[in-house]
Amino acid sequence: MDNLTSEYNPGEAVSASIAPRRSARLHKPKTYDSCAHTATVCKTQSMCVPVNVYEALRGPDAQKWTDAIMKDSDNLKSKDVWDIVQRPLNRNVIDCKWVLAIKRDPDRYKVRLVARGFWQKPGVDYSETFYGLCPFT
């Protein structure tokens, strides 16, 4: 039993090397959300998606964006998506916006017209909302 006991000397360094504990969790890869990284990536790629129509029509691919906008607007007209009516007094007119995208696989320019619904007031501009659900099979 004598060999198991030892005296403790606070000034003396411990000679035993203890391996540090390592975490067993998996680390997520770093995400780059900074504006500088986005600008660098966008500059190195040949195709950058414009933020709005103003940028799209003044960029190098203006004709492709114009063709995509005309194609989508003709598609909306052919499907009778909306009716033109007189604006009721004291009502909001909902603005719309073109959302632009470049599809990488077929290298095509895609636009879609979306309503800017955040201008609407519940109970004034609309009374019901719908949420599309997929049925479980």
From TrEMBL:
It comes from the Eukaryota. Residues 80-130 form the Reverse transcriptase Ty1/copia-type domain. Pfam families: RVT_2. This is Uncharacterized mitochondrial protein AtMg00820-like. It comes from Bombus vosnesenskii.
